[in-house]
Amino acid sequence: MYKRILSGTLLAVMMMIIAGCGGPADRADGTGDPDRPRIALIMKSLANEFFLTMEEGAREHQAAHADQYVLIAEGIQDELDVNRQIQLVEQMIARQVDAIVLAPADSMALVNVCQRAMDAGIVVVNIDNKLDDDVLEERGIRIPFVGPDNRDGAYQAASYLAGYLEPGDPVAIIGGVPSAFNAIQRRLGFEDAMNEAGMEIVATQSADWEMSRANRVVSALITEHPNLKAILCANDSMALGAVSALRSAGKLDDVHVIGFDNISAAQELLRNGDLLASVDQHADRLAVFGIEYALEMLESDIPPDDQETPVDLITAETLD
């Protein structure tokens, strides 16, 4: 009798400990709720204001639709930490989420782990930076891209810039990670507009989306090309670095700068005239577009199809 009582007491204590600690199905964030699909949002660098805005928009959407789905949001700290992003996708596969909405740090390197997720029955939706079409075709898989036309957005900003230049003026392009689809498309959009307007592109260099790296690149560029008239940056973080370098060199009044993303810091520069234009791809809605499409795929089993999202030119005149 004593042994039975002791055994029962130990079992009760163990159950209390388990309940107190909580397992994967009992998390306070509700990610173990079997009645709602779990959607994982995996972003690029959370050091970039763009992705913080993306996460904030996604969390606000989930709070307003808490009865429809559970959100698990993750991101990497370094724009180039592709391996860590792959690990995050692998973690979501292990947690058996229902869908993954991914802004890939690399257009090719993430395809393999996305395929593993799909093989595990997980819906995958690609946002922000498009996965490489050739790699997807080679693997025989289809992952929908929900995002803007980056080439068109860059073309809009560069065309606006052309109105402040003269044909033949020397300009430089500061690009993102060279292998990223959105970096490639933005560079092409810049080139389209500059070539159309008759400008001379004297340099095209990568700063890997980072402000400090862009600062160093631009500092060297304005020494090598002292007559430079404009710098076209593939995101606003790099535009901030470019503006800082120009200010330090006393050339901010002589060189026009454009960016891409419409982050709040860029808006301040637009208002005071240090930045000529940016492009809004609506960071606060971009993940939401992907989440809503993932929910649609889960609910109706629709075939994956790309969905284009809005992109708008932003200047000092168009700011609220």
Can you describe what's shown?
With 320 residues, the chain is of the alpha/beta class. It has two domains: 143 residues, Response regulator (Rossmann fold, 3-Layer(aba) Sandwich), CATH 3.40.50; 131 residues, Rossmann fold. The chain is 47% helix and 17% strand. The chain has eleven helices and twelve strands. A six-stranded parallel β-sheet has the order 2-1-3-4-5-11, sandwiched between helices. Strand 3, helix 4 and strand 4 form a beta-alpha-beta unit. Helix 2 packs across helix 11 and helix 3 packs parallel to helix 4. The longest helix is centred in the first third of the chain and has 20 residues. The N and C termini lie far apart (77 Å). The N terminus is likely disordered.
Gross CATH architecture of the largest domain? 3-Layer(aba) Sandwich
CATH domain class of the largest domain: Alpha Beta
- List the helices and strands in order: HEHEHEHEHEHEHEHEHEHEHEE
CATH homology-level superfamily of the largest domain: Response regulator
Helical content stands at 40-55%
Which shape, going by the Cα principal axes? elongated
Main sheet characteristics: 6 strands, parallel
What is the domain tally? 2
